[in-house]
Amino acid sequence: MRVVLFGPPGVGKGTQAQLLQKRCGLRHVSTGELIRAEVRMGTHAGIEAKPYLDGGKLVPSQLVREMAEHAISELNYDDFILDGYPRTVEQAEWLDEFLALLGFKLDAVISIKVPTDEIVERLSRRRINALTGETYHLDFKPPPARLDPALIVQRSDDRPDAIRQRLLVYAHQTDPVEEYYAVRPIYYKISGVGEVDEVHERIRAVLKKTVVPQDRSA
Q1: Which residues are registered as beta bridge partners of 192?
Q2: Looking at 155, 164, 189, 204, which residue is catalytic?
Q3: What are the two backbone dihedrals, phi and then psi, of residue 146, each rounded to the nearest 5 degrees?
Q4: Active-site residue 126, yes or no?
Q5: Which tens digits make up the pLDDT trace of 173-199?
Q6: Which three-class secondary structure state does DSSP give residue 82?
Q7: How far apart are the first and last CA of the chain?
Q8: Regarding predicted confidence, which is higher, 66 or 159?
Q9: Over the Cα atoms of the chain, what is R_g?
């Protein structure tokens, strides 16, 4: 099964992808995490990407494409959830062509909807471990009490002004992507408001229509 979770930063794509990975055996491919890992390691790609992250802008398409292509190929082109990709029509077209050349296609594109003010509130409460990159949330997943407070930092792109800029950029560049997929029977919209398990059940209801893998959480 090949799934795209679609929606702006802060709608919960990463959390839901991790749940699907745990419960259904689908592998989570987060282009955001791939990019941040490159930045932390100081690779050439990371150095190129960092100014865009710091400014709340989208990383250049070619750079993200290379990372996504590598990650998908490592998973043998199957049983994955793409989180944060594609973000442009060009990327969506490339993904279709890339999979089609290998005899594959997407099974579901799920667009998660959350009001803008709630997204800003969610993201501004996120923190990371400066050493490991592990993500926390002050309300839902607080940092361990034993962790040195100096290591708990807020990413520059998780500040309210950068968040709103990211959302503006996202809407401008990705509204056409939603239109690209909206005409297909594999496209679904769900609400991302509510408890994590509530949203997860909405996603599972969609995937059951495309023959979801057996639940492995039992």
Answers
A1: none
A2: 155
A3: -80, -10
A4: yes
A5: 888 999 999 999 999 999 999 999 999
A6: strand
A7: 20
A8: 159
A9: 17
Q: Dump pLDDT digits (tens) for 48-57.
A: 888 887 876 7
At 170, phi and psi to the nearest 5?
-60, -50
Residue type, 126: R
Q: Does residue 125 carry a catalytic annotation?
A: no
Of 2, 36, 127, 166, the catalytic one is: 166
If one counts every other C-beta atom within 10 angstroms of the C-beta of residue 63, the result is 18
27 has catalytic annotation:
no
DSSP state of 142: P
Domains of the chain: 2-113+168-208 (3.40.50.300)
Please compute, for residue 1, the number of CA atoms within 13 A of its CA located in the half-sphere on the CB side. 24
**Amino acid of residue 49:** A
Q: What is the C-alpha to C-alpha distance for residues 142 and 144, in angstroms, rounded to an integer?
A: 6
pTM, rounded to two decimals: 0.78
Tokens of 47: 């150095």
Q: Among 13, 36, 50, 127, which one carries the catalytic annotation? A: 13
CB 12 within 8 A of CB 6: no
Q: Is 155 a catalytic residue?
A: yes
Query: What per-residue confidence (pLDDT) applies to 218?
Result: 37
For every residue of 58-71, DSSP letters joined together read: PPPHHHHHHHHHHH
Alpha-carbon distance values, 78 to 31, 86, 154 (Å)? 17, 17, 34
